[in-house]
Amino acid sequence: MGVTLPSVLAIDAGNSKTDVALLGPDGSVLCSGQAGGFQPPRTGVAAAVDVLAEAMADAGLPAGRAGGPLAQRVSACLANADFPVEEEQLAREIERRAWGRTTAVHNDTFALLRSGLPTGADPCGVAVVCGAGINCVGMTPDGRTARFPAVGRISGDWGGGGGLAEEALWLAARSEDGRGAATELARALPAHLGHDSMASLIEALHLGRVPRGRLHELTPVLFTVAAAGDPPALSLVHRQADEVVAMASVALGRLGLLEQEVPVVLGGSVLAAGHPQLNDRIAEGLAGRAPLARISVITAPPVLGAALLGLDALGSPSGAYERLRTHFG
């Protein structure tokens, strides 16, 4: 009698962190692990997939094993898998590691969309993720999709936590030296990073005395200042909301869903934080452009979506979905 393999090795890899979870046939999470950010454009494909192996090691899993794979299905939802050619390259590298009998690679925004759809629902809707970066995907039951390249300013992208932090610094610098409107950001941003002025912080960033990796800490500061009514900070938050509305409504329009009752799923650290100045404006904007859209905000770990996609591919029973969702809250 053969040994029953775990069902799914679910992987969600973002710019800042990577999560893996190994699922039993009943949807139970057998083990899970975490590692650092997944950035194949910077490190190359093989080195990026090595980060997935680090997350597996954190879960107590070998990066492959003699005698067979670790799971029936590898379901990997990966940041920076923005073009089909990138999905294919990453899938080949994961297949080379022999972690599963079959492998599927999707952009990580599809994991968010799947998380927002109930068990048994048609794969139909739009998802916008706004975390370290920003992206949007949509799909319909007949397999049509709407996507954006999402590779930075060259593809028309704006916002996300990293972009917001840089824009907040720009506003603060110009406030302090007189080129721009006065804003509390000029005091709050440097104070958060231990400096008494923007001039001091700018020098420290330029010379590497403050790691640029700490800039993500400034996004919550921006929202705090905006919530107090600071006009430049609030304008920046509203611009982010309008960008989310633009992406979602364009994706809905491409798929012919603007006049239909359809889910619009929001996620990522910026949107999941629930800032009223951001999320309320998104709701107002979408009400005007897609009045039947049903907005939900997902706070569950993104690896849930990768796991659900894996269960879908295996035709798992409904109880497996319920057990999985209960585990991730």
Could you explain the architecture of this structure?
- By secondary structure, this protein is of the alpha/beta class.
- It has 13 helices and 10 strands.
- It has helices spanning 40-43, 45-58, 84-96, 108-115, 160-177, 185-192, 198-206, 218-227, 231-254, 269-272, 276-289, 303-314, 318-328; strands at 8-13, 18-23, 29-35, 71-78, 100-107, 125-130, 134-139, 145-147, 262-267, 293-297.
- The strands form 2 sheets. The chain has a 5-stranded mixed β-sheet, sandwiched between helices.
- Helix 5 (160-177) crosses helix 6 and helix 5 packs antiparallel against helix 9 (231-254).
- It is globular and about 65 Å long.
- The model has no long low-confidence stretch (mean pLDDT 95).
For the record, give the distance between the C-alpha atoms at the N and C termini, rounded to a whole number. Answer: 36 Å
Low-confidence stretches: none
Question: How many helices does DSSP assign?
Answer: 13
The SSE string, one letter per element, is: EEEHHEHEHEEEHHHHHEHHEHH
Largest sheet: 5 strands, mixed
Using the CA coordinates, give the radius of gyration: 21 Å
Q: What percentage of the residues does DSSP assign to strands (E)?
A: 15-25%
Find the count of extended strands (DSSP E, 2+ residues). Answer: 10
- Trace the largest sheet across and list its strands: 3-2-1-4-5
The pLDDT mean sits at: 95
What structural class results from the helix and strand content? Answer: alpha/beta
Query: How does the overall form come out from the CA principal axes?
Result: globular
Bin the helical content: 40-55%
